[in-house]
């Protein structure tokens, strides 16, 4: 069955529909569907165990995020299909988030995610522990005899040091994939979308991911942390945050290495691996120098 046939077969539409692919999405395929009375976003994607993605968890997190006022309404769910209300909005880019005024709007949204979504989440919830994910990715790459396998022992040794440095850990409900395109601006407010990796984690992982995904300057990182925590930045918090930022970059690197082997989506994962490995090495060098 083609994606278009599957969308037609959902049985939730009012009259004839128009289907248009939405660009982006490297763990699923997204479509804008217009019927006689509404526009909806349809996300097609099966579970991806190798990436710890459960679509049932994504559905539950999406419902909780809507209930918390952070994300569009869930219209329909069945295994492999998530239908959401369409929001007329612009997806942000990294340069948008680097702007101090936009960052001041984003940080409260991230903090609300960490505080509010767990109050609305129902059913079994995931734990997204980045150091477990890193170790599991390494095992997957070794089992697949990946070309990247020779570098894994050194990367795992660095991950162990990062885990030791990043504690003690607070726990909150995290988005865990704060790419710029997952923030939407409708001209009046911001929305946070795409809950593939949602689960309980330390807030510093999301903050580190927000900074690393969007290539913040150190000044922007300090602004983000002081805004989020509402107090002056201490050396201890900076040290723990820096460790989690490195960990988020290492996880993204290994994610890409695994995707080179397992993904069927048309995307240049090899180039993405090279880019993220270089960014991790730069961040880790700065982390070492700051110890």
UniProtKB/TrEMBL annotation:
InterPro entries: Kinase-like_dom_sf (IPR011009). One of its GO terms (molecular function) is ethanolamine kinase activity. This is Choline/ethanolamine kinase protein. GO terms for cellular component: cytoplasm. It comes from Rhizobium gallicum bv. gallicum R602sp. The lineage of its organism: Bacteria, Pseudomonadati, Pseudomonadota, Alphaproteobacteria, Hyphomicrobiales. Gene3D superfamilies: 3.90.1200.10, Phosphorylase Kinase, domain 1. Keywords: Kinase, Transferase. SUPFAM superfamilies: Protein kinase-like (PK-like) (SSF56112). The keyword Kinase applies. GO terms for biological process: phosphatidylethanolamine biosynthetic process. The keyword Kinase applies.
């Amino acid at each position: 069955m083609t994606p278009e046939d599957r969308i037609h077969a959902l049985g939730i539409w009012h009259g004839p529909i128009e289907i248009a692919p939405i660009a982006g999405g490297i763990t699923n395929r997204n479509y804008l569907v217009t019927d006689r009375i509404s526009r909806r976003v349809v996300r097609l994607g099966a579970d991806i165990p190798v990436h710890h993605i459960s679509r049932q968890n994504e559905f539950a997190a999406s419902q909780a995020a809507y209930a918390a006022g952070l994300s569009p309404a869930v219209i329909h769910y069945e295994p492999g299909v998530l239908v959401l209300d369409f929001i007329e909005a612009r997806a942000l880019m990294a340069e948008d988030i680097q702007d101090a005024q936009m960052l001041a709007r984003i940080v409260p949204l991230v903090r609300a995610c960490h505080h509010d979504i767990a109050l609305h989440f129902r059913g079994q919830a995931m734990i997204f522990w980045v150091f477990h994910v890193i170790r599991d990715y390494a095992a997957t790459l070794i089992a697949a005899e990946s070309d990247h396998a020779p570098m894994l022992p050194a990367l795992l040794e660095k991950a162990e040091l990062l885990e030791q440095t990043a504690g003690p850990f607070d726990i909150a409900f995290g988005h865990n994939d704060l790419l710029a395109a997952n923030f939407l601006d409708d001209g009046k407010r911001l929305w946070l979308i795409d809950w593939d990796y949602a689960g309980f984690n330390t807030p510093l992982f999301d903050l580190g991911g927000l900074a690393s995904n969007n290539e913040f300057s150190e000044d922007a990182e300090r602004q983000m942390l002081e805004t989020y925590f509402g107090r002056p930045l201490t050396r201890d918090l900076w040290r723990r945050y820096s460790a989690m930022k490195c960990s988020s970059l290492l996880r993204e690197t290994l994610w890409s290495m695994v995707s080179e082997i397992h993904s069927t989506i048309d995307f240049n994962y090899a180039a993405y691996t090279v880019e993220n490995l270089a960014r991790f090495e730069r961040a880790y060098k700065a982390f070492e120098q700051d110890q």
